[in-house]
Specification:
By secondary structure, the chain is α/β, with parallel strands linked by helices. Helix content is about 45%, strand content about 15%. Helix 7 crosses helix 8, helix 8 runs parallel beside helix 9 (about 235-250) and helix 9 (about 235-250) crosses helix 10. The longest helix has 21 residues, at about 150-170. The protein is globular.
Length: about 350
């Protein structure tokens, strides 16, 4: 394991005004979003959609790395140019989602554990040979009556640490994603309590597995009330709760934190990230950026709607959304930008 190269790569992914693009929807998730818009759920249309994304003019101005799925690593443009190669030519580092999804945790109703460790070491080595330089693994933590259990938290933390160890051994920067999901009616305070416990447990597991913390990136949730909660916190309140949680739990040696959007409306995600930088830029020891999927891609997907004649306007919407998040990373986003 070359920690110097890993540390350098992690810093490159968190550079300047840029963030990560999570274009890593599984086939099932991508097809679900297509179905909602009446787009054919086929490999050909998934390829068209990803072609639209990777070839969007100016995307490289706001995106430092793109998280792919296995299918995307083998896809190419109509003239045969691999998407991976297009990203690299643009200066966007290609990465890969390597977990195999969260399944119900036997004996723990309502809780999940993520699969994918079997054969992971060999898969990672093959991805490195293909030119991929970082990976991502998502754990799912749900808040509900008497959950999450400590067993669920510890089990997911352990698998995240094992995954991260395998990544670094193969030369890939691990993105560690313990997501406390927004499902439910819990308060923002409850989200803060659970996220604090989850992050403490995850970093303890990473330490025990001898993961190089300078050669990894954390991808957490923001601190938010559940979707069904009556609470409506301001962007500043979300920013304060989130940064305080991270300061209590994330070691200063971690080079960067890249938030997932978790189903937040696009403008809300940008505004909340912006507030964190406006209020706390002088106290945060790590770079703080975005690793959004829907909060960047959904407007473009809706405009495209599977039609070739809509590609250009969809690409403009994609790059515009990325530019809003880039401004938020610099603390320069305003609601006026949306108009």
């Amino acid at each position: 394991m070359n920690t110097t190269l890993l540390d350098t790569l992690a810093k490159q992914l968190m550079q300047g005004n840029k963030g990560l693009l999570a274009m890593d929807e599984s086939t099932a998730t991508c097809n679900k979003r297509f179905a909602e818009l009446g787009i054919p759920q086929t490999e050909a249309y998934r390829r068209k959609y990803r072609d639209l994304i990777v070839n969007a003019p100016g995307l490289e101005d706001y995106i430092s790395g793109a998280i792919l799925v296995d299918e995307t690593t083998r896809q190419s443009t109509d003239d045969g140019k691999l998407f991976i190669d297009i990203l690299k030519q643009k200066g966007i580092i290609p990465g890969i989602k390597v977990d195999e999804g969260a399944i119900p945790m036997i004996g723990f109703p309502g809780e999940k554990i993520t699969e994918g460790l079997d054969g992971l070491a060999d898969r990672l080595k093959a991805y490195y040979t293909q030119g991929l330089r970082f990976a991502k693994w998502r754990a799912v933590i749900t808040i509900g009556s008497d959950i999450p259990s400590l067993t669920c938290i510890k089990s997911n933390a352990y698998t995240l640490a094992r995954y991260a160890m395998f990544c670094q051994d193969a030369g890939l920067v691990p993105i560690v994603e313990p997501e406390v999901v927004m499902d439910g009616n819990h308060s923002i305070q409850k989200c803060a309590e659970v996220t604090t416990e989850v992050l403490h447990t995850v970093f303890n597991a990473l330490y025990q597995h001898r993961v190089d913390l300078e050669g990894m990136i954390l991808k957490p949730n923001m601190i938010l009330p559940g979707n069904d909660s009556a609470e409506k916190p301001t962007a500043d309140q979300v920013a304060e709760a989130t940064v305080k949680c991270l300061l209590r739990t994330v070691p200063a040696t971690v080079p960067g934190i890249a938030f997932l959007s978790g189903g937040q409306p696009a403008a809300d995600a940008s505004e909340r990230l912006n507030s964190m930088h406006k209020l706390f830029d002088d106290v945060m020891p790590w770079a703080l950026t975005y690793s959004f999927s829907r909060a960047v891609q959904q407007p473009a997907l809706e405009l495209w709607n599977g039609k070739d004649e809509h590609i250009a306007v969809a690409q403009e919407a994609l790059v515009f959304r990325a530019s809003c998040n880039s401004a938020a990373k610099m603390g320069k986003y305003t609601a006026a930008m949306e108009r």
